[in-house]
């Protein structure tokens, strides 16, 4: 069968990434993360786009080198068109367009949110690919969605956050505790040795399959302020229990909505994506769902859950098969539906 080599570029937020795929197999997946934002406790858009400009050429060079593929062997260039930060998207988009022009090969625009979901179709993962239809839960610092996936390019958002993303809920809670950015992985780490029921936090009442996390953040802030007023070392003394309680509340919110989504759609296959899928409590809860509710769950390799170009490449390949190419006049789009 034919071998299609695709170079994929992802630059929607604060990671510059390039990948080379041969059909649905990933040959390389290079990610340059931007450390600079740690100093500011969050992603600074202007700094992100400047860092993309510095990183993009070396990252692409490295991806080609690792894959042992020459530019001349590429059949298409896939890139993230959106959603994301405009300045960041522009770097990847302009680069992809000029490279496709220079090499005289097709250009393929990719929707970042579709890519988080279609990452499950990258070959060589430890488990089988999900069968249609399935539910996708995309959870990261920028997104929180439940998507009904009927086919590769037939997706419907059936629930989403009305304020903060779940990763933000983790990061903002961590900030209240004085932990460095991004604090999500640290909450996960400290929670391992804590009591998840030590401090009950309220669960938001949000309609249907939607999420809300800003109330939780405020509840945590007031709770911590009140406790620290009485005992200045409250956070240090109870860090593990606080983190376990925060994590328990967030995971409960996600699982409740998943249960609702399964009931509503009758679909029991659940695939997760986005950086927060690394969270150990979420992974555990999904596995428990298999026993308790008869779910079938799909959790990708860590490198394909956080922002990466391999997931852009698999969408590029699926679109290539349909000869679904973009016009060279295409522009980046900060807000774009799935
Ligand atoms: O997908 P990602 O790398 O970037 C985007 O936001 O698109 O996701 C990053 C988010 C951050 O909010 C980070 O704190 C969170 O994922 N995260 C975690 C864990 N690992 C990463 N949150 C909770 N537990 C983790 N183990
Ligand atoms: Zn993402």
Automatic annotation (TrEMBL):
Keywords: Acyltransferase, Cytoplasm, Iron, Metal-binding, Transferase, tRNA processing. It catalyses: L-threonylcarbamoyladenylate + adenosine(37) in tRNA = N(6)-L-threonylcarbamoyladenosine(37) in tRNA + AMP + H(+). It comes from the Bacteria. It holds the Pfam family TsaD. Binds 1 Fe(2+) ion per subunit. It is found in: Cytoplasm. InterPro entries: ATPase_NBD, Gcp-like_dom, KAE1/TsaD, Peptidase_M22_CS, TsaD. GO terms for cellular component: cytoplasm. Its cofactor is Fe(2+). Its main location: cytoplasm. One of its GO terms (molecular function) is iron ion binding. It is an enzyme of class 2 (transferase). GO terms for biological process: tRNA threonylcarbamoyladenosine modification. Required for the formation of a threonylcarbamoyl group on adenosine at position 37 (t(6)A37) in tRNAs that read codons beginning with adenine. Is involved in the transfer of the threonylcarbamoyl moiety of threonylcarbamoyl-AMP (TC-AMP) to the N6 group of A37, together with TsaE and TsaB. TsaD likely plays a direct catalytic role in this reaction. This is tRNA N6-adenosine threonylcarbamoyltransferase. It comes from Aquimarina brevivitae.
